[in-house]
Specification:
Elements (H helix, E strand, L loop, with lengths): L1 H16 L11 H28 L26 H22 L7 H31 L10 H22 L8 H39 L2 H6 L1
Helix pairs in contact: 1-2, 1-6, 2-3, 3-4, 4-5, 5-6
Length: 230
Amino acid sequence: MFLIGSACFAYGSFAANWSALLKPDMATASFIGVVFFVGSLFFTAAAGLQLLEAINGDIADLGTGPSGQRRAWRWWAWKPRNAGYLSSLIQFAGTLLFNLNTGNALLRGLGWVQEDVLIWTPDMIGSICFLGASYLALMEISHGWWSFEPRQVAWWVVMINVAGSIAFQVSALYGFFPPPPDASWSWNANLWTFVGALCFFVASYLMIPELFDADADKAVSLSPDERLSA
């Protein structure tokens, strides 16, 4: 879902800046707006599932507890001291704001003040949420404020997500609608959205080998009997 959402944002920003390279009906303002909105929905769905995983921990594997009984699935929890949970929660909030941002962008006939309130404000706050969530994820894997682990796939996932969040934040700064609007601001906003979306796309793809690495580490830690039962 993160891959699809990132691809939608990459396409929308590319089409907005380089429409001449695409078919006319695939680069209209209305079509681009819908692509952005659909992408935001995939981001929200993915972030919601990630939050559930953070809430349930190993329960996400749908396994059983030490007593052999299946553990109860939880739909909500409050873990203010858990960096992974806070990262997922803040990112989920950011995706909801992007839903507002991209949904309101479909409205027509808005003045520049309305555009700032309905489109730019949720974009700016949502980008801040993504930036904060990315850094919390870095703290989680670093077990501290910072780490340098280029041989770990998880580290690259987090660092590329941080880069994407920074790009989205720059895009949001350029997304402000001054009176009168400056066309170059819009172009720069789309450019940085494109850069951020590519970062999120790559990071999302790297989550796949990261998953297999985690499964391999888990298998190594199991006893022979546990491996057979798994």
